[in-house]
Design goal:
The protein is an alpha+beta fold. Helix content is 26%, strand content 31%. The chain is globular.
Length: 175
């Protein structure tokens, strides 16, 4: 009789431990899994302002829907923690004055093209396919007041080159 009770007790304990382990595994999967790309994408601020940026290329005009980064906080955050960037989307960084600008890819998960633009809206230079998560600074020779970030390879795909002009309608932040 005692063996039967011990057998039932052992079986119940084994069942309890198995259920507990399965429950912990399930909680771990839910807490640490990668459910969808959307869940991984850093949320865009609901109040994110946008503008259409048009690059006048030798092939014709190329338009991009760009988020505006014109505050120190927005410029510091940039496109960090984004798992993807839709085609023809990007971010336009706006600075109060023309200066030598440097960018890095810290916490940026996707390769980017960085298009440096002067105060008179001419492309000064392009950093192509900047490596994700790299903290090395990137810049071009010459002064810029704006930088348009697009998905890596976009500048080649759309024929964007230094010397071309760019159009957009934005307010320049106060110095």
């Amino acid at each position: 009789m005692r063996e039967m009770i011990c057998g039932r007790t052992f079986g119940f304990r084994l069942l309890s431990v198995t259920c507990l382990a399965a429950g912990l595994w399930l909680v771990g999967r839910v807490a640490f899994c990668t459910p969808s790309e959307q869940a991984h994408r850093a949320p865009e601020p609901s109040s994110a302002r946008r503008t259409v940026v048009v690059v006048h290329t030798s092939r014709g005009d190329e338009s991009f829907d760009a988020e505006i980064a014109d505050t120190p906080a927005d410029r510091a955050r940039g496109l960090m923690e984004r798992w993807s960037l839709p085609a023809r989307a990007g971010m336009l960084f706006i600075f109060p004055r023309e200066q030598h600008l440097t960018f890095w890819m810290k916490n940026t998960l996707i390769p980017l093209d960085m298009i440096f633009i002067s105060h008179d809206r001419k492309i000064v230079g392009i950093v192509k396919k900047a490596k994700p998560l790299d903290t090395a600074t990137r810049s071009v020779s010459g002064l810029s007041q704006f930088v348009l970030e697009l998905a890596g390879g976009a500048s080649d795909a759309y024929g964007i080159e230094p010397g071309q002009t760019v159009s957009f309608d934005v307010t320049i932040p106060v110095r």
